[in-house]
Fold:
Amino acid sequence: MAALTDIRDAIRSRACSSREAVLACIEAIQACDPQLKAFVSYDGDRAIERAEEIDEQIEQGQPLGPLAGVPIAVKDNLCTSFGYTTCSSKMLEHFAAPYDAHVIQCLNAAGAVIIGKTNLDEFAMGSSTENSGLFQTKNPWDVSRVPGGSSGGSAAAVAARLVPAALGSDTGGSIRQPASFCGVTGLKPTYGRVSRYGLVAYGSSLDQIGPLAQDVRDAALLLGVIAGHDPRDSTSVQHDVPDYVAALDAPLTHVRIGVPAEYFGEGLDPEVRAAVEAALDVYRQRGAELVPVHLPHLAYAIACYYLIATAEASSNLARYDGVHYGYRSEKVTDYVDLYCASRQEGFGPEVRRRIMLGTFALSSGYYDAYYLKALKVRTLIRQDFEKAFEACDVIAGPVAPTPAFRLGEKASDPLSMYLADIYTISVNLAGLPGISIPCGRSADGLPIGLQLMGPHFGEAPLLRIAHEYQRETDWHTRTPPVCANGTKE
Amino acid sequence: MAKKIDEAQVRHIAMLSRLKPSDDEVRLFSEQLSAIVEYIEKLNEVDTTDVEPTAHALPIHNVFREDVPTEPYGPDQALNNSPQRVGSFFGVPKVLDQDSGA
Structure:
């Protein structure tokens, strides 16, 4: 499976048809997905029909959208008016959304062919996709390891070249961390850059939709399609959408890269540290200035995040009542029990744990000590970044403290799983854009990611600087042992 | 040391959350949530005197639009995912017994 831009250009120049591209995708999924289990659902017939429509438009010389005929996958917490939107939860296993999410409308308008929907940690709560209520997704670099999460299905599908690109969502690292674990490029845009309309809510002040792709160019192309104001999400902003792809070829002069000591402290795996430092050297050799910066409240980001995200989740997930839609228990004694039994049976353990933690944080007598305190620390985290960006254009660091861990390794200890989110969640708390790009491999052959973080709405320079690294290196072109293109190494 | 969240508290929070954990899960969640809350109390090390809370990362306040009616869902669309549909209504178990005189 070639990259998004290449397939787009091939279809446009009639070197291949959309139908051929979609068929290649379906074949790849049929060959590799039984092993990886990246997809919750895919509908080949529907995709082929749609591809034939696009081919017809090309035949007739009609104006084409920027993704005309290109197959793409989306995380299964994005509402689609076709098929089911399961959130990988028993609660929504048979939920047929009555509408398309804003980003799905954008993809359709751009001519993309949505081929299927990918697995996630239930309701996007997790860092390994092991919390999926349906099945576990495997890492294509080593099937005994997790793909990361919560957008693990999207990351695995792109890494194994089952699809050229996919959408994910990122509340605390759920695009960037699986991108890092699977060796693909993943972008979390600025909060408000992409409408969340039709994204099943987890932590509404943190959630953001973004692309997972083979390289920065494809991520830029996809961001341009999904970004923009939408009156149905009151937090989506009015800012103009620049041409992110054109910006990649802009001249790059005097880049200042902030390097926070806090991102290279205790707990960082030596191989990850070495790979990230080597990536910084690449920038230095290209003339970038490395500037020491400080993010002194990093140590509190996890505590802050797991109060705010769970508080928002406890409120957002109150809508699953066993009445309007979703799972209903069959063993119900009265109407209160209808709620309790349906929710107990419909939600998996991590979702229940987070709902309870959030309910605790918001409950009478604890609100000020926990939830309000976390909101205040959030201010300090945001201000740390504002101060740091006075001295640099982007901030660089690792995405995750280690490469992909083994399936089951952290599954029984929720706190240890939370602690692994240390480098990604402050970006969500501050609402900033962040990108993960592959920058090396461990001795075990597992991908390692470099994270670049930018100021609010600084996606164009962020992508430009990330693209510079991919011009100099080829980590992003390497493919894993489980791959539709065959093994290259 | 006493648990941060004991089993009675877990049962209380579960009721507020409209969940129905088994006895085993109450014990497990008491342990796990206690460990998490103990970790979270790190936040007390931070001096937040005179710090304003941040509920949203961007300075977005009220957003207004014209109050223009749009096409609502009909009963079929609205009830399509309902676990129990009774005519044009969502079906639920009886709230009151027939004998209660209500």
Notes: Residues 363 and 461 of chain A are 42 Å apart (CA to CA).
